[in-house]
Amino acid sequence: MAFEQDGIIQVEPEELKELLKQEDRPIIIDVRELDEYEEAHIPGLPLIPMQTIPAVAPDLDKDQDYLFVCRSGNRSQNVALYLQNQGFTNVKNYAGGMLAWTGETVSGAEWVVRSPEELKKEK
Fold this sequence. Notes:
Blueprint: E1 3-5, E2 8-11, H1 13-21, E3 27-30, H2 34-39, H3 53-56, E4 66-69, H4 74-85, E5 91-94
Parallel strand pairs: 2-5, 3-4, 4-5
Antiparallel strand pairs: 1-2
């Protein structure tokens, strides 16, 4: 069951699995480094490395729902907090990160986002 930490909703592994099945879901973004993402990531998730978030944040839709994923849940929590401080109201963190993920993974650079417009294909 989701819980809150520092004002950010934390999504548990089973909840993420259910979200991935839904058509009307948040945009779920992997914020790890490219090499981590290439090694293994949740299928269909775009990559926007944490250090690039400040550059793309002004072009992201503040009214959109976002859920962030990283290795352990720490970087993604920091991204959610950062965006919340930038005026985003619908940001969540995947608690436990990829270390807690027991679902399917794929390798390779499936979807590395170079511009926020590329996220529109997520919906």
